[in-house]
């Protein structure tokens, strides 16, 4: 009878090599593994398995493992791992792929941030800021932690001059709170925030002697309370709250 085959754990005899690829070109990562029985391999991008992803062409033949990029995108910049496994062991090798963009990139930056706004009920509110970035950032607005939805009375705009606006044609108390605009592109992300407070209407029927101070007084109240926050030492921090009352506290 033939002797039993001697089992051996996976061992990489050719390792993945870190390197750079230009955006839009083809690229491949190659390694070779040995072991008895022949190991099975898995590929990971930043610890996420990509074996079933349609974005890559994966081949494995007699220990030769290849991960091929038919077209390299900026999002492909990451650390890639090949993991080989058989019944008696596991081995891994890693490499980093750096992607060189076709055009220069610049992370978003708020040249002019949002400013706090105070309005009477029924008045128009306009939040404005100026944000730059390459490629042009995508903007998203949040009010009190929830995404802002465009309606007939609420519109957002981002024009070619890098000016972003949020316009409310007629303000109501529900429109008050903390507004945050986020600008994001492939190079990074930046945010700007402001407080919006909406006071009650002025009396519709007033004599010449009556002033706004004649409005019925309202006890101060916290409309949006402070929130606990954790920051790294040495970093900027901003605490926001919204207080209402008549006259203004």
UniProtKB/TrEMBL annotation:
Record's signal peptide: none
Stored Gene3D superfamilies: Immunoglobulins
Record field: transmembrane: none
Domain of life: Eukaryota
Pfam families, alphabetized: I-set
Protein name: Ig-like domain-containing protein
Lineage: Eukaryota, Metazoa, Ecdysozoa, Arthropoda, Hexapoda
Record-linked InterPro entries: Ig-like_dom, Ig-like_dom_sf, Ig-like_fold, Ig_I-set, Ig_sub, Ig_sub2
Domain (Ig-like): residue spans on this chain: 9-98, 108-197
């Amino acid at each position: 009878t033939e002797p039993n085959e001697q089992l051996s754990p996976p061992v990489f005899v050719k390792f993945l090599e870190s390197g750079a690829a230009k955006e839009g070109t083809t690229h491949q990562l190659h390694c070779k593994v040995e072991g008895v029985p022949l190991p099975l391999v898995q590929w990971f991008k930043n610890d996420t398995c990509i074996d079933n992803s349609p974005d890559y062409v994966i081949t494995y033949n007699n220990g030769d493992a290849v991960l091929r990029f038919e077209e390299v995108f900026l999002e492909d910049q990451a650390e890639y791992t090949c993991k080989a496994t058989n019944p008696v062991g596991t081995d891994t090798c890693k490499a980093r792929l750096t992607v060189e963009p076709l055009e220069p990139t610049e992370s978003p930056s708020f040249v002019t941030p949002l400013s706090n706004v105070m309005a009477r009920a029924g008045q128009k509110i306009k939040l404005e800021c100026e944000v730059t970035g390459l490629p042009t950032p995508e903007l998203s607005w949040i009010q009190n932690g929830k995404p802002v939805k465009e309606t007939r009375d609420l519109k957002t705009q981002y024009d070619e001059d890098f000016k972003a606006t949020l316009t409310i044609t007629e303000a109501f108390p529900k429109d008050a709170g903390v507004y945050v605009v986020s600008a994001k592109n492939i190079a990074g992300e930046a945010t700007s925030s402001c407080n919006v407070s909406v006071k009650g209407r002025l009396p519709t029927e007033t004599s010449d002697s009556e002033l706004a101070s004649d409005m019925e007084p309202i006890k101060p109240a916290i409309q949006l309370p402070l929130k606990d926050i954790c920051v790294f030492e040495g970093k900027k921090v901003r605490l926001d709250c919204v207080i209402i009352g008549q006259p203004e506290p």
